[in-house]
Structure formats: C-alpha cells, structure tokens
C-alpha cells in the first residue's frame, strides 16, 4: 500500500507593495561614513568666564533690590556724613582726625551691603532661578566666581564713591581749624604739626576712602559666602549681623567681671568688625589698632569662607 507523496510547503509570497496614493517613498540612502553631518544654523561658540560675568551683571543690575539697597546705602553714608561734617564744622575746636566723621554713616551703610551680598545668591535659591542658571552654565565654580567678581566690584565702586564724597565734606567743613590746646601731640599727623592746623594726611585719605570701601566690599563678599553655605536669606543675614555686632556687645557685658573677663572683652573689641572699620579712619576704640592689618584679617576670613562656599556649591545638588 503506497502513501501519497509529501510535497514541501511553498515559501510565503510577500505582499505586493501598495500602489497609487498609498505608495511609500523609497527610504533615504544611508549617509556614508565620514560624510557631511548636520550643521546647526545657530553659531556655536565655546563659553568662558566673560560670558558668565556678563550674565551676572545683567541679573544684578536689573533686579530692583540691588538698586534700592545700594541707593539706601549711598544716601545713608553721604547724608549722615554731610550732617556730621556740618555739625562739626560749626564747633570752634577742630576734630582730630579730620576725616573721622565719615564713620557714623558707614556703620549703618555697611548693613545694606551685607544684606545685598546675601541676596545675590539666596534669592536664586528661594525663587528656583538657580536651576536655570546652572542649566545655562553647568560649570558651577565659574558661576560662583562670576557672582563674586560682579558683586565685589559693584559694592566697592559704590562705597568708594560714597566715602570719597563724605571725606570731601569733612575736609571742607572740619579741616583747616586751629589745633586744640588740650590734644596730645602724638595723636596728630606730620602734616597737621607742620601746618599748625588740622589737615588730613595722605594715609588718612587712603584709609577713609579706598580702605573703607575695601572693608565694606569684603564684608559683602563674606555675606555672599555665608549665603552660599546656608542657602537661607534670614539665616545668612542673622549670622552676619551676629558677626558684625555680637563681639562688641559681648565685650561690653564683660566689663566689671574681673581682669580676666575684661582682657577677653578688650580682645573682642580690638578684633571686632566695628573696630576694624573705625581703625581705617584712625578712630578705633583703643586708639592703637592698625586698620590695614584688621583689613587683612577680614580678607583671610573671607577667603576661608569662600573656599567652603565653593566646596558646597560644587558638590551639593540644588
């Protein structure tokens, strides 16, 4: 009995390609290796620190808080300085040093620069703008460097202009008066002793203008570093107010608690921020502090705070 012969199955017939309106266009040929690729119509340039500085300058000058804070600082320093110079000029006895009246307005004006230094960085964290900033410029160290440079130069220039005007007011209204009889000759500079009347020396002019502006700008830069570390506007401003005011206040409470406590209080007053600023005008609490050495100490503290701020800013997420 024979079985029917098995035939192998025929291969499936591929469907016919669609015709007419449903026909598909042929696939594009593969781009040969090494051939021309896509060219963006937008020119691409390598970014550098200058671009970040331009961006930060645009941000800081277009924010209302910057304009108002610096305007209030300028009015406080110049307005109070003019009023003090006018009051001292109406007195028969001369004030020594001649430019010392400019410290009063600057003690209040520095608080505005401190607040602005904090807001330069913490305002971006509070609004979420820091994400946009870091997306546009992923190099975080470059962002912080640009912020520090722009803010430092802006605060230094504004403070320098205010201090120069105040020094001019004091030189006009207070300078040129006879030397008081009761004053210690060691407190007088060589120019005053030679002229026989109160004159501000070149060192006093430098300290009351450039030195004071550097001191306040460094305080603002320290505030920016503290704001970067804390990422909180109230916390950073409170911390900086404690740094500025607390050592002097504590030194006053230590008076009358024995020689040991009073010695600690003297050191706190000597190295306090307020005494450092007054020393640049030769109006320190103890009369012997060197304002430039205290300025160097503030620069060292600011540098240490900035190193910590860079470490946190570049390693922690937003």
Structure report:
The chain has one domain. It has helices at residues 49-62, 64-89, 103-127, 129-136, 140-173, 190-195, 202-230, 233-253, 259-270, 273-279, 291-315. It is 65% helix and 0% strand. α3 packs parallel to α7. It is mainly α and 318 residues long. The model has no long low-confidence stretch (mean pLDDT 84).
Shape: elongated
Q: What is the rounded Rg?
A: 34 Å
Q: What's the β-strand tally? A: 0
Q: SS-based structural class? A: mainly alpha
Terminus-to-terminus distance? 87 Å
Put simply, the count of helices is 11
Unreliable runs, pLDDT <50, ≥5 residues? none
Largest sheet geometry? none
Strand fraction band?
under 5%
Helix content: 55-70%
Q: What is the residue-averaged pLDDT?
A: 84
**How many separate structural domains?**
1
What is the H-and-E element order? HHHHHHHHHHH
Q: What would the keywords be for this entry?
A:
318 residues, mainly alpha, single chain
In brief:
The protein has helices at 49-62, 64-89, 103-127, 129-136, 140-173, 190-195, 202-230, 233-253, 259-270, 273-279, 291-315.
Topology:
Blueprint: H1 49-62, H2 64-89, H3 103-127, H4 129-136, H5 140-173, H6 190-195, H7 202-230, H8 233-253, H9 259-270, H10 273-279, H11 291-315
Helix pairs in contact: 1-5, 2-3, 2-5, 3-5, 3-7, 3-8, 5-7, 7-8, 7-11, 8-9, 10-11
């Amino acid at each position: 009995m024979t079985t029917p012969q098995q035939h192998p199955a025929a291969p499936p017939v591929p469907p016919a390609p669609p015709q007419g309106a449903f026909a598909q266009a042929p696939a594009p040929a593969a781009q040969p290796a090494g051939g021309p690729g896509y060219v963006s119509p937008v020119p691409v340039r390598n970014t550098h620190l200058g671009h970040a500085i331009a961006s930060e300058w645009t941000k800081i000058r277009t924010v209302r808080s910057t304009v108002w804070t610096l305007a209030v600082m300028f009015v406080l320093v110049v307005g109070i300085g003019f009023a003090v110079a006018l009051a001292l000029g109406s007195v028969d006895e001369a004030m020594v040093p001649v430019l010392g009246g400019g410290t009063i307005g600057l003690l209040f004006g520095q608080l505005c620069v401190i607040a602005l230094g904090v807001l330069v960085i913490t305002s971006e964290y509070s609004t979420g703008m820091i994400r946009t900033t870091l997306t546009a410029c992923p190099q975080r160290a470059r962002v912080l460097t640009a912020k520090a440079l722009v803010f430092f130069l802006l605060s230094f220039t504004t403070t320098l202009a205010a201090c120069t005007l105040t020094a001019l007011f004091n030189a006009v209204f207070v300078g040129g008066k006879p030397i008081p009889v009761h004053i210690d000759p060691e407190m007088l500079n060589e120019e005053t002793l030679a002229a026989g009347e109160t004159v501000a020396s070149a060192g006093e002019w430098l300290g009351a203008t450039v030195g004071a502006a550097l001191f306040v700008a460094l305080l603002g830069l320290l505030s920016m570093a503290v704001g970067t570390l804390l990422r909180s506007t109230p916390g950073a401003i409170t911390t900086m107010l404690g740094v500025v005011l607390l050592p002097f206040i504590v030194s006053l409470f230590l008076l009358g608690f024995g020689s040991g406590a009073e010695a600690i209080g003297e050191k706190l007053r000597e190295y306090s921020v307020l005494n450092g600023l007054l020393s640049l005008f030769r109006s320190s609490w103890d009369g012997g502090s060197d304002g430039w050495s205290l300025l160097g100490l503030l620069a060292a503290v600011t540098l240490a705070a900035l190193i910590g701020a860079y470490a946190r800013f570049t390693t922690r997420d937003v």
